Amino acid sequence: MHIPDNYLSPQTCAVMFAAAAPAWVISVRKVKKELPPEKVAMMGVGAAFSFLGMMFNVPLPGGTTGHAVGGTLIALLLGPYASCISVSIALLLQALIFGDGGILSFGANCFNMAFVLPFVGYAIAHAISPNWGKNKKRDLIGAGIGSYIGINAAALCAAIEFGIQTMLFKDASGNALYCPYGLNVSIPAMMAGHLTLFGLAEVVFTVAVLAFVWKAAPDFDNSTVKAKTALPVKILLGVLICAVPVGLLAEGTAWGEWGADEISGTGAGYVPKGIAHGINYPALLPDYSFSGLPDWFGYILSAVVGVALLVIIFRIISYIASKGSRYDRAVA
Amino acid sequence: MNTIELKNVSFNYDDGTPALEDISLSLASGRCYVIKGPNGCGKSSLFRILNGLSFPTKGEYFFKGTAVTPKFLHDKKNAAIFHSKIGFLFQDTEVMLFTGSVEDEIAFGLYQLGLSDEEVKSRTGHYISALSLEALRRRAPFSLSGGEKKRVALASILAMEPEVLIMDEPLSGLDEDGQSWITDALKSLKSPERLLLIATHNDQLVREISDQTILMDKFHHIVN
Amino acid sequence: MTERLLKAIAAIVDSDSNSEKKPSRMSPALRLAVAVFAIVLCACSRNAVFVITVLTVELIRMALLKPDRMIYVLKKLVLPIVFTLLIMLPAVFFGHRSTMLTVTMKVAESVLILLLVNEDLSWKEITGVFSEIHLPSVITMTLDTTVRFLVLLGRLAERIHEAYLLRSLGRAADRRKMSAAGGILGTVFLKSSKMSQESFEAMQCRGYNGAYRRLSRHRFCIWDALYLCAVPMLVIFFIITQKAI
Questions:
Q1: Does any domain span residue A22?
Q2: Cβ-defined contacts of A207-210 (< 8 Å, 24+)
Q3: Percent of the residues in chain C that have a pLDDT greater than 90, as a whole number
Q4: Which of A144, A319, B131, C241 would give a disulfide with C50, using CB separation of 3.0 to 4.6 Å?
Q5: How does residue A72 score in pLDDT terms, banded at 50, 70 and 90?
Q6: Separation CA A263–CA A305 (nearest Å)
Q7: Between residues 69 and 98 of chain A, which touch chain C (CB distance below 8 Å)?
Q8: C77 touches chain A (CB under 8 A)
Q9: Per-residue confidence (pLDDT) for residue A241, from 0 to 100
Q10: Where are the transmembrane segments (chain B) (predicted)?
């Protein structure tokens, strides 16, 4: 479910950051104030677990991947606020160090997987089993259903974020600037996988670990920061959830209009000869215009690219060759 | 007044099984005590109590004349002073090393003492060279070998310059070189201002370092 | 999955014990900030010249890497590019002819920039950035413990998995595999939560009062100043190229 960079418009990314920010701030405050300190130390374990779950990933048509997240599991063990931070940190490490999921889309990814997922999963699990901790069987059923709905809610959010891009952001000639698939493609593509395989993976991941933990360590401390949220926070969260789509639409149309006006007046499609040589740019990059820049810039740029590529290729070949010869010598 | 005084201390686990029964101990500064006893004799519980991680079910624990109780340690100032005076080397050194690099590990305790950045830096540097950790300075503790981890854990405690040093099996899991290195280090730690309390099965260490040996039996008593 | 996990862990440990990798000369925070800034500008750019130029600069940086690192970066770069191309291919037939190349080019650029950041900085320097910008200690501490537990969990899971294979004499039926996976994960979870509990006690023994800081603070140096110049250059170039459309 990791959205890479440039599948969403920068505007969408900004809106999603703005949407995730209050969730982070509230979570950090809640955890600092209410989570017992030894549980705070557990958040790293939670994040590492979530990271583990995310490594089961499979590419999905429509622009992203499917995998377990474990957000509901962490929410049930440490509370939804701690889960929000843990999953965010797992996502941060993946984006920065392991190259999974983008930097710009970090806000969107966190909104889906670190905010929507654990809170929905936790709320549903507790709705099904209101006296949490009293009836383990009922708890497990709640956990299973909660985690299933949680991950699907997150997938739906991701699908909507993808799907609205083509409605909002197009260039003069009608080409999509970001994810080119509408809701009619993105929602089925995302949901087909998550309603079946990945939803199931998340349920197994959640229920298996919970059941084992409760069986092997019945006294495992279940005290968490309850999602008994103060009314103002609830209202804020509600407004946020409603406001995000509106914000996306508002931002998008403003930019879309501006873009179309500007671009249609500039004679897009003209490409200086220096760049157009060899590669068939006009057909492939009609929205990208090189007009207004001096020809020499194009020449220099292509020369530099060529030199850089040659250096890379040459050095790699000589490296492989030298390795081979060393091996030969060793064998001989 | 002795540094550590235990008066008729008993300790039960949560489920009621006894771990320590009626233990009285009086340990003085400047000496090195070695605790010996079979597995499960209650050494770990004893160490937890001495470090303020658990509290006696019965009896009292005085540290430098002050009773150590949950209420006493609940006060953050008291807890800070108490912990700065006792250093504890866990048997499993892995759990003691939680930061991202060796130097941060040593600096961690110093930041808790509220020292200035400059002081933290210079003291960290001092203990890094004292335990010859220069080459490992920026390494992550979890990627080190067992012996190296022990050294880092020891450095992180020594840097806080505690008056009491409690060590649970400092030689466990080390090869011969590691053992002799740590033994030498421990010998050099003996000083008139410091109290050492070490649990070990290693007879050579006992011979080389012990001023007094405390024997515990499997019935959670102290024998001598 | 275990293989991928072990690879990731090996990468963490390797980068740590690799003595050739010297600490970054410029401030890691600045290095990361400029990289993110460049990614943002490229995402916003409507002009291919800007994106291609940034890509060119990154190619030059890549050409300066050691050959084995070059191969590593290239390998890492290929997958997202192929993946994006495949995903965007159907759109070409829906009438979005240019989208495929636009998006793929920008994806390549983002991924390459981040890969090169990771060549310059160790994961420790990257996570260190977050304590430098004064995020709450809850976050910086969790960040460090996450990396630590990732390594510990991976090793633990591997050992338990091996022990399980030995006991089941390699005849683990698929049906049983599922419950075994739950057991392995559960055991790993309990073990690690016990470890984190003990770690917390070790922190208490050192008088933990909420302070969690990194020792080495980077001092502003000439490299930082030079690198800082990249910002106005990027901005000016961005404006020129956007105006040129």
A1: yes
A2: A207/A140, A207/A143, A207/A144, A207/A147, A207/C182, A208/C178, A208/C179, A208/C181, A208/C182, A208/C183, A208/C185, A208/C186, A209/A49, A209/A73, A209/C182, A209/C185, A209/C186, A209/C189, A210/A73, A210/A76, A210/A77, A210/A139, A210/A140, A210/A143
A3: 10
A4: C241
A5: very high
A6: 27
A7: 85-86, 89-90, 92-93, 95-98
A8: no
A9: 52
A10: none
Radius of gyration of chain C, Cα coordinates, nearest whole angstrom: 23
- Domain hosting A238: range is 10-249+270-331
Domain count along chain A: 1
Q: What is the pLDDT of residue B219?
A: 65
- Predicted confidence band at C181 (pLDDT cuts at 50, 70, 90)? low
Count how many domains chain B has: 1
Q: Which of B50, B95, B80 is nearest to B160 (CA)?
A: B80
Q: With pLDDT > 70 as the criterion, what percentage of chain B qualifies?
A: 98
Cross-chain residue pair C84–A4, CB shorter than 8 Å: yes
* Chain C residues in contact with B75 (beta carbon < 8 A): none
Question: Which of B130-139, B193-202, C7-16, C188-197 is the least confident region?
Answer: C7-16
Q: What are phi and psi of B3, to 5 degrees?
A: -65, -45
B 151-170 residues with CB < 8 A to C: 156-157, 160
Using N-to-C axis directions, what is the helix angle for C123-132 and C137-167, rounded to 10°? Answer: 150
Average pLDDT over chain B, rounded to an integer? 88
Do the Cβ atoms of B96 and C207 come within 8 Å? no
Separation of alpha carbons A132 and A226, rounded Å? 11
For residue C200, pLDDT over 70 is answered with yes
SS3 B14: coil
Q: How many CB pairs under 8 A join B and C?
A: 98
pLDDT at A263 over 70: no
Q: Is B51 on the interface with C (CB under 8 A)?
A: yes
What ipTM was predicted for this assembly?
0.87
Domain assignment present for residue B224? The answer is no
**Residue C61: partners with Cβ closer than 8 Å, 6 or more residues away:** C116
Under the banding of pLDDT at 50, 70 and 90, the label for residue C180 is low
Tell me the C-alpha distance between C125 and C114, whole Å: 14
**B222 domain residue, yes or no:** no
CA distance C152 to chain B (A): 8
Residues in chain B closer than 8 A to C121 (CB atoms)? none
CA distance C225 to chain A (A): 24
Task: Say how far apart CA B7 and CA B59 lie, in whole Å.
Answer: 6
Q: B92 and chain C: CB distance < 8 Å anywhere?
A: yes
Within a domain: B204: yes
| Residue B88 per-residue DSSP state | E
Q: Is residue A301 part of a domain?
A: yes
CATH number for the domain harbouring residue A17: 1.10.1760.20
Whether residue B66 lies inside any domain: the answer is yes
Q: Which domain holds residue B116?
A: 4-215
pLDDT at A38 over 60: yes
Segments making up each domain of chain C, as ranges: 27-120, 134-204
Note whether B98 contacts C202, CB cutoff 8 Å.
Answer: yes
| CA B104 – CA B119 distance, rounded (Å) | 14
Q: Is residue A62 part of a domain?
A: yes
- Within-domain flag for A255: no
Q: What is the CATH number of the domain that holds B142?
A: 3.40.50.300
Q: What is the pLDDT of residues C67-123, one digit of tens each?
A: 888 888 898 888 888 888 888 888 777 777 777 888 888 889 999 999 999 888 888
Q: Taking a contact as any Cβ pair under 8 Å apart, which residues of chain C between 164 and 193 contact chain B? A: none
Report the share of chain A in percent with pLDDT over 70.
Answer: 69
* Residues C106, A205: C-beta atoms closer than 8 Å: no
Confidence of residue B140 (pLDDT cuts 50, 70, 90): confident
